[in-house]
Specification:
single chain; 260 residues; alpha/beta; Rossmann fold; seven-stranded parallel beta sheet; 7 strands
Amino acid sequence: MTQQKPASKRDPQGAAKSVFITGASSGLGRQMAIEFSRRGYCLALTARRLDVLKELQAELAASGGGPVFVAALDVTDELSVVQVLAQASAQLGSLDIVVANAGIGHHGAIGKLPFDRVRDTINTNVIGFMATVDAAMHQFKAQGHGHLVGISSVAAFRGMPAGGVYGASKAAVTTYLESLRAETHSSPIVVTTLSPGFIDTPINRGAKSRPFVIGVERGGKLLVDLIERQVQQATVPRWPWSVVARLMAVLPTSVIAKLR
């Protein structure tokens, strides 16, 4: 049986819509790439592991998806971020959506977690994220439109034992995008902050507890659904994390301390 090619998503001018994703070689980035491809988007996929990206590129081509540009990228190298984003835009014609997804997740008590892991987390999750957003904003302003998506986390809502550096890095993502949303208000630029709970990916498989965990395929679909709806902010999934987030914010420290 011949496999049907997905209908391409189109912008108002009729061109196929494009998505640029950092950290696309595994986890949520990879799954979002698969989901966007199923929906007919053109893709620009980046990560440090080019060989893995090329395997994904071949997989998506075999499934009948649209054009896929791949490039090696370490988001902590801000010059490379600018260059690769420009290359992707030239290859695909424009970049309608940029998903700043690349991140790492080191956990450990403050003062015990080796500081090189603290530095790596901040460099990737904060500096690399901001470099991606900065480059995307230059691109969006030049082309006159764009949709910036930042992947934060429910870990941003409250500092947890052994989660200080990761939670702080994701709180930075959330706050930075709040500022950007205010700066771009009433402009043709959309800003979305998505805060996943536990989705079954390598970044959390070593955790002792993963409450309300969902599969990566469902997680990827929910993320792309929310991106297509251009929501401003959302937990993923919305239930129960939207309620848990509000509860976490008001729990006394004595209760939080017992969750180590």
